[in-house]
């Protein structure tokens, strides 16, 4: 999972590491300067501490303070510089500045874009990483990997954690029946995700009905019926080519009459650009108002999935997304971008074809996966 993206992020860490090594080597000559300054220095008085200065000022009238001879003042300055340089070198620290980061950050942005992360999201990540690293003091020879990794983790976590909410908790606490409508294009795993969630809610002790609202594609009703049968939940269905709003309305009536907890409504796959089908979706939402609308798309579609999510969200405001086929996704771009672009959270990740291959989305878990050995 996300192997290509993992390799790219690790490349960025290495690049910053080499920058730091270069800078460490460049600092070495300063040590020689310090040594030669030390040879030059004649013993001089150390400048008084601020406390001594205050005391001396209170003890002596201002006019009695003697001016420091010019030669002695020079030595003091020299001494001050030598002290500072010594501190710099002996503590062997330096500060990362914008110049150090310019090239690696450019490479990072390219790597993120190549991983199908949307432009605005890549920019947000790069700007956050930059903000965290510029001005960071580093001890030469210390482990730089951690600060770079932490900066990347924070930046990715921030863009992925938009309005996170817990679907299980929502369903548990909402007035029943809870109605959830699933939308998206053909073949991305909508029906399979409905089946997975049916099992999840059933395993939590809730009663579930599925509504065969995809009356458009031949075989879609049978496909859902097979899943419902395997999982042991009721299906409400009409004839193919029937009105999806009518099927879903019936499913809600059935749920109310039989105290069913959750109604999961399938809908026909449709392109976000198909105005008639999008109008049909709005009708479904008017006739049987959903508590939640979940957009389903496949992670492997990358930027396309993110653009579709944004356009569906404009037509019927989605509550969140399920990204399927993450088990086959090496780039991770859709997963990283979708919540930031839509402002709606990822709810679950589909991670295989089995009913239990559904993972509740946790941005921290995702970010940790990206940096796992
Ligand atoms: N590897 C993998 N395959 C998945 C996942 N989710 C769904 N699939 C497979 O993707 C294919 C399409 O899934 P469906 O659930 O039929 O897709 P759909 O969106 O309902 O398609 P339509 O009925 O055409 O609208 C099936 O072969 C599923 O088994 C997943 O998380 N990982």
UniProtKB/TrEMBL annotation:
It is a peripheral membrane protein. The keyword ATP-binding does not apply. Keywords: Cell membrane, Cytoplasm, GTP-binding, Hydrolase, Membrane, Nucleotide-binding, Receptor. Pfam families: SRP54, SRP54_N. SUPFAM superfamilies: Domain of the SRP/SRP receptor G-proteins, P-loop containing nucleoside triphosphate hydrolases. Residues 345-358 form the SRP54-type proteins GTP-binding domain. The keyword Iron does not apply. GO terms for molecular function: GTP binding; GTPase activity; signal recognition particle binding. Gene3D superfamilies: P-loop containing nucleotide triphosphate hydrolases (3.40.50.300), Signal recognition particle SRP54, nucleotide-binding domain (1.20.120.140). GO terms for cellular component: cytoplasm; plasma membrane. It catalyses: GTP + H2O = GDP + phosphate + H(+). Belongs to the GTP-binding SRP family. FtsY subfamily. NCBIfam families: ftsY (TIGR00064). HAMAP family: FtsY. This is Signal recognition particle receptor FtsY.
């Amino acid at each position: 999972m996300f192997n290509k993206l993992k390799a790219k992020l690790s490349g960025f860490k290495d690049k910053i590491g080499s920058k730091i090594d270069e800078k460490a080597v460049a600092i070495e000559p300063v040590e020689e300067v310090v040594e030669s300054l030390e040879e030059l220095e004649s013993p001089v008085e150390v400048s008084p501490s601020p406390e001594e200065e205050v005391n001396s000022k209170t003890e002596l009238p201002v006019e009695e303070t003697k001016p420091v001879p010019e030669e002695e003042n020079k030595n003091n300055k020299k001494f001050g510089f030598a002290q500072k340089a010594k501190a710099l070198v002996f503590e062997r620290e330096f500060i990362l500045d914008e110049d150090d980061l310019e090239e690696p950050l450019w490479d990072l942005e390219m790597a993120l874009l190549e991983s199908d992360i949307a432009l605005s999201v890549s920019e947000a990540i790069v700007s956050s990483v930059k903000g965290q690293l510029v001005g960071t003091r580093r001890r030469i020879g210390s482990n730089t990997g951690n600060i770079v990794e932490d900066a990347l983790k924070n930046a990715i976590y921030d863009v992925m954690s938009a309005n996170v909410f817990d679907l299980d908790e929502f369903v548990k606490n909402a007035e029943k029946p809870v109605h959830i409508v699933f939308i998206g294009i053909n073949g991305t795993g909508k029906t399979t995700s409905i089946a997975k969630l049916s099992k999840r809610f059933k395993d939590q002790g809730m009663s579930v009905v599925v509504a065969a609202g995809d009356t458009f594609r031949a075989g879609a009703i049978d496909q859902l019926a097979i899943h419902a049968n395997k999982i042991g939940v009721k299906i409400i269905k009409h004839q193919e080519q029937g009105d999806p709003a009518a099927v879903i309305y019936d499913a809600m009536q059935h749920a109310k009459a039989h105290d069913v907890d959750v109604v999961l409504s399938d809908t026909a796959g449709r392109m976000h650009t198909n105005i008639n089908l999008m109008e049909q979706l709005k009708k479904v939402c008017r006739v049987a108002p959903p508590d939640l609308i979940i957009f389903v798309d496949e992670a492997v579609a990358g930027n396309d999935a993110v653009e579709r999510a944004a356009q569906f969200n404009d037509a019927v405001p989605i509550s969140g997304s399920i990204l399927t086929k993450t088990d086959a996704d090496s780039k991770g771009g859709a997963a990283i971008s979708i919540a930031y672009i839509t402002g709606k959270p990822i709810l679950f990740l589909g991670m295989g074809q089995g009913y239990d291959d559904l993972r509740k989305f946790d941005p921290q878990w995702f970010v940790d996966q990206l940096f796992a050995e």
